[in-house]
Structure prediction request, 443 residues.
Amino acid sequence: MGSSDDLTWKVAPQLDRHLVFPLLEFLQERQLYNDEEILKAKIELLSETNMVDYAMDIHKSLYHTDQVPQEMVDRRVEVVARLKSLEESAAPLITFLQNAALVQELRPDKQYNIQMLSERYQIGVDQIEALYQYAKFQFECGNYSGAADYLYQYRALCTNPERSLSALWGKLAAEILMQNWDTALDELNRLKEIIDSKNFASPLNQLQNRIWLMHWSLFIFFNHENGRNGIIDLFFQDRYLNAIQTNAHHLLRYLATAVVVNKRRRNLLKDLIKVIQQEQYCYKDPITEFLECLYVNYDFEGAQMKLRECEQVILNDPFLGKHVEEGNFVTVPLRDEFLENARLFIFETYCRIHQCIDISTLAEKMNMSYEEAEIFIVNLVRSSKLDAKIDSVSGTLVMATNHINVHEQIIESLKNLNMRTYMLAKNIVEPAQVAAQASAGAR
Prediction:
């Protein structure tokens, strides 16, 4: 089954395996795949974690049995034993950290802390390392809250930059899984600072970390109240846009959606269209195609058809299709905002091209009844986004004469193109002529 526009299989490899569970839950709810397929995918994911009880429950519901394989039982015994031994190794440090009065003795200077812990409390590097292993194990068991606390404390004591980075990724995943969006955003910004620093690992490693960061950020940006600005600010930065165009074209769906629903960032539409056109051979989906139909081809029929597909894409996308219950109603806020803004785009573009518009034709183009279209237009004209008057006798909308003529726009851009071509030729030919003259002189 499944939808050809489902990006889960492209997104999942860039996530921590625990972060894939919310995506599978969503797909299961939307019934995009057979239940059996989803349950098998969950068991496969769980096999690499320590969430043995959860794996047992899923096994029971998948095979309709109360029995579980012996290896699952053995694995549970092994996990419990390992947890006990890690707890013992980390115990001296955990006891110290649970005492608020003692924690006050810690300072921003990590070397001082390490020396002080060693001299006064006989807590050495091994116990600090044990705290990391214990936190990681807690995370693997699905205890995200405990893991987040221990990873935070570990980073305050850790002097190994690679380990510290790994702990920060773990902390970010835990905060996302607990849906602590404000804290998760802080951790995301911390990570970004480290990844963008000059002394970060090789450029290839830096690129991969940026790609991970953008994928993980989707959870935050489509849940945090300021997320739509956040995703635009991050994805439009040269280094991140470059990473999308190099190795993660599918992220264009999320950037395009954010630009469409963000009325304040309309000025970035031009830049977005440029990127969509550059990448159309590598990636396209109904959302990018809708913008292309409208702003590149001025194809209103095509845009209208794509808009219907966009709605399905949003409803079936784990990041975009979030349901919100209001009383007895369940709404998908992003879908509603997207459709509202997209209709506005169609309307504005159509008005730019035509001087006098028949309201019933416009209603058809926007998939509305005549009355809906008339109310929509009246509201728009009132909010002064448009210089136009409604002639209710003839049922037309008459645009003011200072509208932008699309044909003039095309001629203008052709002039620019000619000029650019001329400059390009000049820059290539002139040095070549100079070089030819020089070599002739040398002879």
